[in-house]
Amino acid sequence: MEHEDVEKAIASKSARIYLPISLGAALLFFLASSLVGEFPPVARFGGSAWVALLTLIISMPVVTSRLKKGMREKA
Amino acid sequence: MGDSLANISLPVQGMTCTSCVSHVEGALRELAGVSDVVVNLSTNKASLTYDPALVKVTDLQRAVEGVGYSVPPAEVTLDVQGMTCASCVAHVEGALNELDGVGEVSVNLGLGTARLKYIPGAVTIGAMKRAVQNVGYTASERRAGADAMDRERQAREEEIKRQGRNLLIAGSIGMIVMIGTFYDMLGPFRAIVPPFLSFKWVIGLLTTPIVFGPGRQFFTNSWRGLKHGVTDMNLLYATGIGAAYGIALINTLFPDAGFGGEGATFFESAALLTAFIILGRWLEALTRGRTSEAIRKLMKLQPKIARVIRNGNEEEISAEEVEIDDLVLVRPGESIPVDGVILEGYSAVDESMLTGESLPVEKKAQDQVIGGTINKTGAFKFKATRVGKDTALAQIIKLVEDAQASKAPIQKLADWVAGHFILGVHLLAMLVFVFWFFFGFQQFFDPDSSFILSPYKLGEIGVFGFSLLLSVTVLVISCPCAVGLATPSAMMAGTGKAAELGVLFKGAEAIENTSKIRTIIFDKTGTLTKGEPSVTDTIALSGSELEVLRLAAIAEKNSEHPLGEAIVRAAASQGLQLEDAASFDSIPGHGVEAIYAGREILLGNRKLMRERQVDFKPFLHQAERLEADGKTVMFISLDGQPAGLVAVADTLKEHSIEAVKRLHRLGLEVAMITGDNRRTAEAIARMVGIDRVLAEVLPQDKAEEVIKLQAQGKKVAMVGDGVNDAPALAQADVGMAIGSGTDVAKETGDIILIKDDIRDVVVALEVARATMRKVRQNLFWAFVYNTLGIPLGAGLFYPFISLIISPELAGLMMAFSSVSVTLNTLLLKRFKPGRLEASIASSAQKRKFVPAPAGD
Fold first, then answer.
1. How far apart are CA A41 and CA A51, in angstroms?
2. Which of B224, B366, B770, B841 is the most exposed place for a label (fewest CB within 10 A)?
């Protein structure tokens, strides 16, 4: 039970980090695609979504395992 | 202290009295966050309450160890289901390592096991299983022997069945999807295909159950892992299938949304990609189990039934219930249930399954029999001497299992690559997407371009659809599985094959080290020679020859040295009366001294005579003549005066010459180490074909000689018996204990050769080299596949050839790259040691006399 509580705490804390990172990357992509070239809106939105998804997939395990490691070291 | 306190009952070893109790209690109480410490001497346990936020179980362990006691760890093996690649190994290891109280963790992908050491009371097996489940796999405690085999086979069969069912669904519906997609290109066959199958929404409807049925496993597994901060192959599949399906769905439902419209509805990509990935999983499940076939064969040998005689009655009981000293009856054709010694009867026993010895071995009263071997001809009764986990078969199984569960140094690189692969590939997929979106599409896109092996034109696809397609293909084509499987699958097959041939490697590292050996040292006595010397010459310098032999035998009467025993045997065969010496002293590596009838007898080598200043100079030419014939000469003096010479010789083992020849053919330098004087040693070296002679080496100095060779930059293997040569075997890069019989657990050395056949040294080297060749081939192809496949998938060649790989073709390539590693490994099953025909030279030499041991 205790272990699960720790897991939940780590999950919510890491979500507060990787979600903004992913959204930030998506926003960056959207801005870039809006400013550079003439891309149709669907491509811009779709591209942003794909970038957000990939960034989420990349950052989620990295952030979660870092937090876990940090917590272990602190303990 | 924190809010949540934990209680623990820690096992403590080494306490003998109440002061030990107070030491342990004091050490534990000193730790912050620890309270209510009670140490019980009778149960050897320390019970306490602690705050996990302030103190870890490892701190408790250290505190106990700090005051001179130990916390003995327990060991458990879990069967882990669902691991498919090296990143899965890293996840399971990571999850288990996170548990407080867990020490060493070793996860084996091929065997599907996690072996771990833990502190009982600090962590439960249930918690371990939950930790594994949390990262997306299932775990159960491994049972021993046949049970484990049944369970492993059952789990594998279930996986084959499950993936087979998935493949049937995904494959059959996927075929219909493909037919519908290429309806316009079917030509005359169109007549037999209903036209509605070509409707996009019908194709979409058919693809949906594939993605959410058989393909569902990839989404659920990857999500479970992601939540706990881990990524694996499932994630690559899920992103690939999800993206292909999602875009196709959008383009079907909203053709004007700008994602490429109807021309970019790649439902068949999603359908076939799922089918191909599942095909790969199915093939892997089919083939991977075969790499561990050797261990299964060994496990199958464990007999189920024994016939024992208790209270005069014959009873049929389970083999597990046989107890030591039970009288066991074995009839022709039956398996011998446990290890023992024959009391009555005579038979021939097939021991090939354990020793690799092809011919049945004759057995009579007082001979040993091994459990799991087959009685061929007669019936006999034997007394059980080793049962349960102590039998030779159980020990061999444990040794092979341990070896298969261990990791070779070469695997570290592969593990690191595979562990970082998934994230790296996702990062690359993003870069590929960004490149083609902002730059590549505008620069290089050709509407007439198409997929490789497909007439499908990319004409209507937009910038987003095209970039996404290449990004998805990168995800799908990459294959860390091949990298991760390359080493462990070959190690498993190699150790298994070696075990079949009676060669037991103690770990994957032993295989890797053996393959690098360039110099091999043989201990002479008992290794190159039979170790059964006999007296060949007696020369009297004063008195009669018989008197010299008698005095020598009296001096050696209490000696356990093979040479001494040879002299005593020779005297006895002459009918000489051997009285006891008044005193006897052994001088290790030199000889013996004894007092008999008030006279001092000194018997030993030159060195001994020199040290005791006995002048043998006038007789040295006689000694040298004997030594030139390869005989060991012992000098005997009486009251400090030369009395005579006794020459002793040993016989070469019948395959020594052949083995050395084959080692030369493998390019090895062959050395021999012995306590004999140089002339004698060189005589035998010439006979056998040895390159380098390390003579006059005292038993305790053998390890030093190994160090000297290692200092010259040589990778050295030492072959000897596992008891007398233990320090040298331990010092060598690879120690091979030969002719140990079946008590394998007690042996020193990295390799145990069960049979007393020196050619098995060559077999060990050949298996190790073949295994490492397989590892290198696997790694090479895995890296080459990924190095070529990923750029191809990323569209690197598109500007030149206007062709890209479709996700489904990428999926097929990925599946086959992974399976090809396993198939390549399975070729090791065909390995046969290159034994020479019984050479004429060998048979001519085998009766030749060679020197007896002198202190080795």
1. 15
2. B366
Residue A48 touches partner B, C-beta closer than 8 Å: no
C-alpha B92/C-alpha B13 separation (Å) is 30
Q: Where are the alpha helices (DSSP H) in B228-292?
A: 233-253, 267-291
Q: Point out the catalytic residue in the list B232, B523, B721, B756.
A: B523
Complex ipTM above 0.90? yes
Bridge partner residues of B379 (DSSP): none
Structure tokens at B276: 């191909």
- How far is the alpha carbon of B430 from chain A, nearest alpha carbon, in Å? 7
Average of per-residue pLDDT values in chain B: 82
Instruction: Identify which of A2, A37, A60 has the shortest CB distance to residue B229.
Output: A60
Residues ≥6 apart with Cβ < 8 Å to B85: B109, B232, B233, B418, B480, B481, B484, B485
Mean pLDDT calculated for residue range B26-38: 82
Partner residue opposite B462 with nearest CB, options A11, A43, A55: A43
Q: What is the pLDDT of residues B77-89, one digit of tens each?
A: 888 887 877 678 8
Residue whose pair of structure tokens reads 């769905």 in the numeric block: B249
Retrieve residue B717's tokens.
Answer: 């293997």
Q: Touching check for A41 and chain B: CB below 8 Å? A: yes
Averaged pLDDT, B157-179: 89
Q: List the one residue out of B789, B831, B92, B79 whose CA is nearest residue B483.
A: B789
> pLDDT tens across B456-481, in order?
677 777 888 889 889 988 988 887 77
Whether B523 sits among the annotated catalytic residues: the reply is yes
Pick A47's closest partner by Cβ from B53, B130, B464.
Answer: B464
Largest Cα separation within chain A, whole Å, is 54
Instruction: Measure in Å the smallest separation between the Cα of A36 and chain B Cα atoms.
Output: 8
Beta bridge partners of B327: B309, B383
**Residue B210 exposure: Cα atoms within 13 Å on the Cβ side:** 33
Q: How far apart are CA B70 and CA B24, in angstroms?
A: 10
Contact (CB, 8 A) for B261 and B460: yes
Contact list, A65 vs chain B (CB under 8 Å): 94, 229-230
* pLDDT for position A51: 95
